[in-house]
Amino acid sequence: LRRMAGGRFNPRLQLCALHLDFDDAHRLHGCPLIYALHLEEGVELPQGQEARPMPHSDLIVFERGDGGRCVRVQTACPHHVCVVIFCSDEHLHGNVFPDSLEPSVTPGLALLRLVPYARKGIDAFSRAVEHDGALWERAVPLLDSRLRERWAARAKRDGV
Hints:
- This protein is of the alpha+beta class.
- Helix content is 21%, strand content 26%.
- The longest helix is centred in the last third of the chain and has 14 residues, at 145-158.
- The chain starts with a strand and ends with a helix.
């Protein structure tokens, strides 16, 4: 983290976009963030980057929403998939920024990040239509035609 220390800029700390995702739906054990490093065929990492090829993609996760202790998770792990599970609405978190704006990623190297989270509004809607079939009947006509066709086919198949 890069911040002001005692009113002065401290270059030893690294910049990070810290935030809470207040609109993410809460899950008892959190939601996963999934990272997979992709290296194109024939591309080799420069010497010294083999174990940590993209340090600017690391994730910082704090123990509370207002900070506290934290961990820095290496998300770009050669030959591995990294899965981080936490409650993004309760734990301050963010990805580390590069030390420089100069391109530093080896050509042919990319990091895939999957964020399979749900929004609080979607959870509320799902609970509401589960208990009120009339609400679902009012919502279906508002869906686009392709989605309506899929739902109709599913209902016909399932005998609903």
